[in-house]
Amino acid sequence: MEYEFKPKFIERYSALTDFEKFKEYSFKRLRRAIRVNTLKISVEEVVRRLSPEWELTPVPWCKEGFWIEHRGIGEEKRRDVGNLKEHMLGYIYVQEPASMLPPLVLDAQPGDLVLDMCAAPGSKTSQIAMMMKGEGFLVANDYKGDRLAALGINLQRVGAVNSMTNLGEGRYFKDFKFDRILVDAPCSGTGTIRKSLKTIQIWNPNMVRRLAGTQRQLARTAFDNLKEGGTMVYSTCSCEPEEDEAVVSHLLEIFPNAEVQDIDLPIKRGAPVMSFGKKEFHPDVAKTLRLWPQDNDTEGFFVAKIKKLP
Q1: Which of 35, 88, 123, 192 has its CB surrounded by the most CB atoms within 10 Å?
Q2: What is the three-class DSSP state of 228?
Q3: Which of 62, 118, 187, 237 is catalytic?
């Protein structure tokens, strides 16, 4: 099929980034990647098992992450990483490297009480569980039953014994107090066009505005359910300022005790958007992490780390 960006999309993104580079990488095949699940196996053992047939290139910002490419040539070159025995046994998780960022920034510790508010299908949830080393408690929530089924299967496969799944809309959480909360919010997905070209067809400004309303509500609810001194991470796979910097700015305006923290990771990043349309964003939005697909040859992503002050 022929896919063409809409004129309004081109106009908007030309003002935000190098559109020709963005377009080039959006139509470029996404590199396969895995994350080693250290709940079941060591990184060194996985490298030993896979290296004879697969070339593994470390992901700079995640010590368990690798880009993976089969050593075969032509028709012998495999891409079906999900069919590997190591995947079925839960030793590895097929996960895009940009998707590994939110759990790294959340930095859940053994013994924490953690909520993943929009968890399915479970890549980030399983990474959080891995970082908790089976200690503490992880609530993995999603609002659709079919998505929750996939989430439960994935958590069982990786051995996330300290987790439970919950069916419900994230905005209805009330009177809980978590040490850490991840809000990987439902979004327009404009950072993942290279994985889902239909995004080009369904994108429109009204859709973005509707999603941003839901995202603001989820972010407010998460902050309300965070302990004093706790950390929440807000993330999307969208490159839309309305879904990213604007949501964080809104949270900072509503909650005086919300503090955006710096994200120190070895990754190339784009400049945060400090204004959009007629709206000037809170100065602390400058501390957020914005990734364009062309920055690291990954998906586009947005991550913000927010602490709740006493």
Answers
A1: 35
A2: strand
A3: 237
Q: Where are the domains of the chain?
A: 7-28+97-308, 33-94
310 residues of the chain, pLDDT tens digit each? 678 999 999 999 999 999 999 999 999 999 999 999 999 999 999 999 999 999 999 999 999 999 999 999 887 888 899 999 999 999 999 999 999 999 999 999 999 999 999 999 999 999 999 999 999 999 999 998 889 999 999 999 999 999 999 999 999 999 899 999 999 999 999 999 999 999 999 999 999 999 999 999 999 999 999 999 999 999 999 999 999 999 999 999 999 999 999 999 999 999 999 999 999 999 999 999 999 999 999 999 999 999 999 9
Q: Known catalytic residue: 237?
A: yes
CATH H superfamily, domain 7-28+97-308: Vaccinia Virus protein VP39 (3.40.50.150)
Distance between CA atoms of residues 282 and 73, nearest Å: 51
Report in angstroms the alpha-carbon separations of 281 from 56, 272, 277. 41, 10, 11
Whats the size of the chain, residue-wise?
310
Which CATH number is 33-94 given?
3.30.70.1170
Tell me how far apart the alpha carbons of residues 121 and 138 are, in angstroms, rounded to a whole number: 15
- pTM across the whole model: 0.96
